[in-house]
Amino acid sequence: MPSIWKTLIAGAAMLATATGAMAADWTPPGPIKLLIAFRAGGGADTQARLIAETLEDKLGWKFIPEQATGKGGLTMAAALKKAPADGTVVGMAVTETFGYNMAAAPNAGMKPSDFAGITTTAGFQMGVVSASSKGWKSIDDMIAAAKGGEPIRFGVMSPRLADIAYLLGKAQGVDFNIVSVQGGRAVLDGVNAGDLDVGFMAGIQRAGVAAGDLVNLASALSVPLEQTPDAPTLATLGVEFDSDGQFLFVGPAGMPQDAIDTMAKAIAETISDAESKPGGLIKKAFGGPVIIQGAELDAQLEAGFQSSEALLKAASE
Amino acid sequence: MAMTQNRWIGLVVCVLALVLLFVWIPLDVETGIVEKIRRQVEIGDALGPTVAGVFLLFGGVILAFVERPPSEPKPVDGQAIRFALLIVVYLGVCFLVMLVTGPAAVWVASQATGSDLEYRLLRDTVPWKYLGFLTGGTLAILGVISLAERRVSLKALIVAVAAVIAMIAIYDLPFDDLLLPPNGDF
Amino acid sequence: MGTLDYIWLGILAVFQGPEFVSLAGISISVTLAMIFFGFLLGVAVGATPGLAGPIAMAISLPILISIFGFTPDALLPVLGFLIGIMKGATIGGAVPAILFNTPGTPDAFMTTLDGHPMARRGLGGKALRVAHFSSVTGDTFSDIVLIICAPFLALLVEGYLDLPEKAALLILSMSFIAAAVGGSLAKGLISTGLGLLAAYVGTGQDFYPRLSIGNEALSEGFPLASTVLGVLIVGAVLHELALYWRRRDDGTAGTVMETEANQRLSLREIGRLMPYIGRSAVVGTMIGALPGIGSTLAATIGYTVGKRRYQKVRKDDALDFGEGVPEGVAATEAANSSVSGANLIPVLSLGIPGNAAAVFLILAAESIGGFTPGPSVFKFTTDQVNPELVIAFGLFTCMFLANLMNWTIGGVFMRAMAVMTRIPKQVLLPVVLLLTLTAIYVQETAMAAVWFTLGFGVLGYLMRVLAISPLPFVIAFILGGRLEDTSRQAFAATGGDPWFLVSSPVSIAFMALTAIVVVAAIRRGRTD
Predict the structure, then answer these.
(1) Assuming Cys at both sites, which of A97, B47, B132, C416 could form a disulfide with A93, CB separation 3.0 to 4.6 Å?
(2) pTM score of the predicted model
(3) How high is the ipTM of this complex?
């Protein structure tokens, strides 16, 4: 065998391993494909890319980000499920993908146990938001308007939120005209343009609320909103489901535990540091990091899947 | 009723539209034209494709039976079409060559050295990552020039190699995150 | 934040971005540099037979996005580059038409009628100068109209149109495009139907990817880049190659003839040309403002209008249109160039692209994110900055800078680019093919995208062979998702009213116009 081949192969092998030398317990055997379930350019996509970039600098790993959008994250999940489980392919999505969306699409044949949760990064400040020009000061004003016969257009950006909006109306004894749009940005635009009367917004309302153009009428979470702590939660409005959820990194089931741990630790460190680029973004856009890892995360995904079946059932009645 | 070229196109489009409307959509779309969910009637996934089918059907019927365009389009040049299709098939083959070259080289290398290499893990490593694109890309340009000129020339080969190297320089060298064909598939 | 503040912010956004280079203490922003590079590339590809602005825009896009990333900061440099190409290609297109009697683009065909005879009489340089002056004048006029009209139209749309009316307006636009492009309503409808069908494969609201026939690649839908570039670029390249292969022998060799000493344009000559340029600029701008009717029709009408006037005023012994008069070149070039600015009126005010260049601007904005061309851009919020509006005024600034380059250095570059016409087509086109496929792969990172592109290339080629315009296909593909979403939202918002499309005077008017457009086109098709 010509010696040039040996040199080349030796060089290649060195390149693949040497850069990771300073890393802790686990080094990827090759470049890591990062499947991003969000369209390029949005806050979620930027978050994923910034985290990858920071890890590259910090650990000497190599990430190759790739868009895998569509079907509420199921497109990404389907690709991830088939990928080699050696830590060289990971994905970024929201917990809703592994809960409601998998429960609602049984034909896709995916469940949370097909995946290994790595870490969550941030939550959503999901509120029920209207334009202040509507004149509603609280959710009661809106319900009163609906009871007075005004048709209410309720903007939602996922089937799960549509179900929750429906149950909110049911609990309050009114019917909303539930309008599904593509993404939180479209809800914001619709509410601003007057095409929608009210809608779910997952943090994008922050500046508008601060400026007084928008009003957080209610928190769609199990806890009050940070920005408007006085707005009632869904539970107090008679809805037993909430829209709690986080962004998360996830791998295929069977991914080596040391790979999961190393990655989870590194991501958590990065996003907890408000001085780092991803940390700063998460602080600014999502109100700070939310870090759930390990067995706790897997259990949460499984629980989300189970409760979604209950939500699906409740909303079909 | 003479079978002009436009009438042929119109009839073929009509058949396509009918297949779409009455076979493809019913079999391959989960929700109907309207759906009742959450006590609310909503537009289902079948409406959009149905509108597409109606556009096609209208277009086909008008073309076949109503419209009399000022002049018939030029008669179809069968040889030109075959040539264009040949180029497409040839390009497809070149991209298949791209797909297999890298892994084949890695396989040979690991057989020769006894080491256990995998192309997937080397897809971002020089020189492996260029093998497929260099081979397939050069073949693609060289072949299409040669088909068009009806001869193989050294000039075409030089152009092909230079162009492929230039593309590597444009797309790969300056960027960390970009993958040349076929490396995204691994 | 008043309107003037926004305009000022937009201008600043162009000049104050990150520094590209500092020349003699003056800092050149990246955006400014990108407009310049785009402009040079545009003149070059415009002057190259077989290439056109859209091809260059398509191939540069993935490279630009890789350089600048997916952040709002990337918008102005990337869009500036594309606008530079667009503007440069407009003047470049006249070069091969005049010197070699081969129109680089269809809309330059009318330019050959008088431009080439002028070149044969030894006035090639003068013809190029006339083309340059008329082209840039028409373009600048069109841009001014754009900047005045687009914000107002957008405000009207946002203020008066509710979801049902927006759905009706989309239907009207699509029917209009189907009826107006290519002269045959039937073929326009077929092209539109195919575009809609392609848009609906693998998409939809349900979790099951519709029409995907169990195929995994189809279930993600056709990638935008594969579909648009496949039909527009690969289809066109295949067509060119097949044409070349068929008539390889009758090559038309051209020569640059500048035997006359004086190739310059005097002020008096410009004064004589102005009536033609003015008329054509108005014609081109009006046509450009309607989506889908391209610059080819504008050139034809501009030429016809110019010819009519010329015959009234010409002296008996003077040359006529078609025999090589500068007025003919001016009338054509002013008309086809003034389409490009006005074509952005429907893009910026409605989000509806009217031609291939606009398609690529939308493609760029969609890929980068943070700027959605459409009426919501022109929200003059006062208490906080609307970043999209700043970008919009930044874009206008880019257009005027590109015009400025056109005025100052465009003529010189244009005449220098005559060398580009010597590049043999059969060598250039295969390189363009691989470059396009590579660009798409780099963006989509999956072979499936290449197969789709080749498939759509065949479709685009066959459409050209069968005289079906691919433009309605592309526009329908881009708007298909929005048409469905808007209809769905309008239907849901009205509480499931099946008559939502005719529920208000405005939407009734739009639907009635749709019917009139279609019926008129059918009648035209029968009587022609």
Answers:
(1) A97
(2) 0.91
(3) 0.96
